[in-house]
Each structure stands twice: as structure tokens, then as C-alpha cells.
Automatic annotation (TrEMBL):
InterPro entries per the UniProt record, alphabetical: 4Fe4S_Fe-S-bd, 4Fe4S_Fe_S_CS, Fe-S_Ferredoxin
GO molecular function annotations of the record: 4 iron, 4 sulfur cluster binding; metal ion binding
Domain 4Fe-4S ferredoxin-type, residue spans: 53-82, 284-313, 321-350
Top-level lineage group: Bacteria
Keyword Iron on entry: yes
Name of the protein: 4Fe-4S ferredoxin
A Pfam family: Fer4_10
Taxonomic source organism: Eggerthella sinensis
Keywords: 4Fe-4S, Iron, Iron-sulfur, Metal-binding
PANTHER family assigned to the protein according to its UniProt record, in alphabetical order: ADENYLYLSULFATE REDUCTASE, BETA SUBUNIT (PTHR43687), BLR5484 PROTEIN (PTHR43687:SF4)
Length: 381
């Protein structure tokens, strides 16, 4: 049974940690040849390291901006401040307060205390914003989406600006592809209707908000501490090696990133696609040079989501085999291409919208594996 000191230590660690690492999801951990470095590239402080089967985050260097969690294709980095659930709850309340608009503000401009905190959702940095939140709001009828920053050019998070722009462009492209007129806008100032006339009102709200937030954090910390302590003292808790053990089907464990599924659901709610294809960072399309392919199936072994998998269908001619590919499950992590022994597989960011919403996977015909010369045949040479 954990003692009080153990519980306090874990609670403090959780309170200080901004990102949880689900290492068994990371493609770099799954395969040392993985080229993905999106989290490390996005981190403005150099706190994230992903290479050589290792995913690490230095909590001392982490600035809690959330940029790494937004770009990770397999959700190996999970934001804790705020959690996705807390972010959704906060924006739901602010949408009611504004009468239908969803306004997100970075901590820097929120700290100026010029706007009513009940009418916007605060995030550490706008780099924390990602497509599933924005499209989810649009799909639920919110047609006014605004991201308010605090003059990024002079901010310590200014290296995140290209990433924020990419998220906004990505969300807008996906909504446009579904025929929606909703667009995410950016501004460096709050709308007039959110501004406070009397700052004493803000002081009162902030004070009440502080104590409410403190109680919430204490309750959450207690719950998380209990969960962590149970796991910490559970001798049966699986190690990373055990969690990455091959399945009976001959693949590493697979999963469906929740955010991608939420994006797909939101797009479906928005309507039918109005364009034949879309260039996106969220989903991918695979092509294989079947003449060069040796049918080793390494791509299916390492695919983290099962987007590429062996098919049980047999070609009518009896020659070769099939792979099944699902665009909706591909997260463009590029691990299949990195694992390919013949370098004959490529991942493309342009996907067919028809294929994206097709429940039937695309069949890719592979040739029979090349015959290997036996010992006797080699001796005859």
C-alpha cells in the first residue's frame, strides 16, 4: 500500500507534467528506422527527443505549449494541461456564454484581463489547438471560430507560429472539402463583445475562477494519483517490451488514434465531399511499386493503426496475394515506407475523398515472393 509521501510525490509529478508519453504508440519506439520526428521538430524548447527506439520529454525544458501533442500522428504524446476532455468542456460553456461563438485565447493575451473569461477558452498556446476540436465545433453548428493570440512575434512561443498556421489551414481545408462555409479565423485582439467594461468584475470572476480551478485540480490530482499509485504498485503491469509483443497475426499491437476518428466523424456530419481529393496532413494514401516488392509484409507488421494489413482474399488467378489498405486508418506516420526493405512504398498526403469515407479497403495485388535458391542449386554453379 503506498504511503502518504509516495502519493504526494506522484501528485506533484502529475501537477508539473504537461504531456503524458504513451511510448508504445510512438513509431520511433516501434522501429528504430522510423523517420518521424514531428514532435521534436515542433517543440520550441528542445524538450522532446525521439530517435533510436526512444521517446523522451524533459519536464524541465518543457514549456507546456502542446505543440508536440498536436502534430504527433499516433497520439503518443497526450496533453494533460488541458486534457482534451477539459478543453471540450470549457469551450462548450463559453459557446453558451457568447451565444454561439467559440473563442480560444492563448495564456499571454488572457493574462491581460481585458475580456470576460467565461466567454473564451484559454490554452497555454494556440499550438495546443488541433483539428478534431475545431471541426467538431463546426459539425455541431458553431459557425464562428476564432483563435486570439497575444502578438506572437514577441512571444517565447513564437517558433510555434508556423504550426498554428498549419493547423488553421488544415482545419479550413477539411471543412471546405465537405462543402462547409465555416472557417477558423485568427486575431490578435478579442472581439468587442467579449471585452469587459468594469475590470472589478473581472477581478471577482478571476478570484472565483481561481478557487474553482484549485478545487478541480485538487480533485483531479487525487483521482490521477490513485490511478497512478495502483499502476505503480501493480506487479502485473506490462513492460514496454511486453506491450510491443507481436500479436497472433504477426503484427505489432495496433490502435486507432481517437482524434483522427473524431475528425472523420465531424467531416461526415458536415456533409458530403464536394471535391474528389484533398491534400491533408491527417490521412494518407499508400502506393507500392509491385514490380520491386518482395512481399515481405514488413509494412503490415509495423503499421501502428492497421491501415495496411494482409488480406485473407486470394487472387482469382492464384498468383500472388493481396494487401488491404484503408485511407481512413492511415495517419501518415510513414512507418510502412521506413520499414520497407525494398524502398518500394510511398505515402502521399493527397487522398481521395471517396476512398476516405469508403468502408471497403483498397486491395493491392502483390506478386509471389521471389524463389530463394536452395543449397543444391548454389553448389551446381
Amino acid at each position: 500500500m503506498p504511503n502518504l509521501i509516495d502519493i504526494v510525490e506522484v501528485a506533484e509529478a502529475l501537477e508539473s507534467r504537461a504531456v503524458y508519453l504513451a511510448s508504445d504508440r510512438c513509431v520511433v519506439v516501434r522501429n528504430r528506422h522510423a523517420s518521424c520526428a514531428k514532435c521534436a521538430d515542433a517543440c520550441p524548447s528542445g524538450a522532446v527527443f525521439a530517435a533510436n527506439n526512444v521517446l523522451e520529454l524533459d519536464p524541465e525544458q518543457c514549456v507546456a505549449c502542446g505543440a508536440c501533442t498536436t502534430v504527433c500522428p499516433v497520439e503518443a504524446l497526450i496533453p494533460l494541461r488541458p486534457l482534451d476532455e477539459d478543453l471540450a468542456s470549457s469551450v462548450a460553456e463559453s459557446v453558451v456564454a457568447t451565444g454561439g461563438a467559440a473563442v480560444f485565447a492563448c495564456a499571454r493575451i488572457a493574462s491581460k484581463r481585458t475580456a470576460d473569461p467565461t466567454m473564451f477558452t484559454e490554452v497555454p498556446c494556440l499550438a495546443r489547438m488541433e483539428e478534431s476540436v475545431l471541426l467538431g465545433l463546426a459539425a455541431r453548428g458553431v459557425d464562428d471560430l476564432l483563435l486570439v493570440d497575444g502578438t506572437c512575434a514577441t512571444c517565447k512561443f513564437r517558433a510555434n507560429v508556423p504550426g498554428i498556421d498549419a493547423t488553421v489551414a488544415s482545419a479550413n481545408d477539411l471543412m471546405a472539402a465537405m462543402g462547409s462555409d465555416v472557417r477558423v479565423e485568427r486575431s490578435s485582439a478579442f472581439p468587442d463583445e467579449l471585452l469587459l467594461e468594469d475590470k472589478r468584475t473581472l477581478l471577482g470572476e478571476s478570484r472565483r475562477g481561481f478557487f474553482t480551478s484549485a478545487r478541480t485540480r485538487a480533485k483531479d490530482a487525487a483521482g490521477k494519483t490513485a490511478e497512478v499509485m495502483v499502476f505503480k504498485h501493480d506487479d502485473a503491469a506490462p513492460s514496454l517490451r511486453e506491450r510491443l509483443r507481436m500479436s497472433d497475426s504477426g503484427t505489432l499491437p495496433q490502435f486507432n488514434p481517437q482524434r483522427r476518428m473524431l475528425v472523420l466523424d465531424a467531416m461526415d456530419r458536415l456533409g458530403a465531399p464536394v471535391v474528389p481529393e484533398i491534400d491533408t496532413r491527417l490521412f494518407g494514401s499508400v502506393s507500392i511499386d509491385t514490380d520491386a516488392c518482395s512481399s515481405c509484409n514488413m509494412c503490415t507488421v509495423f503499421c501502428p493503426t492497421g491501415a495496411l494489413r494482409k488480406s485473407e482474399l486470394v487472387p482469382e488467378e492464384g498468383e500472388g496475394s493481396f494487401l488491404e489498405f484503408s485511407v481512413a486508418d492511415c495517419v501518415q506516420c510513414n512507418l510502412c515506407a521506413d520499414a520497407c526493405l525494398k524502398n518500394c512504398l510511398t505515402v502521399n498526403s493527397v487522398v481521395s475523398t471517396d476512398e476516405l469515407f469508403d468502408f471497403e479497403p483498397r486491395l493491392i495485388h502483390l506478386p509471389n515472393p521471389p524463389a530463394r535458391p536452395g543449397i543444391l542449386s548454389s553448389l551446381k554453379r
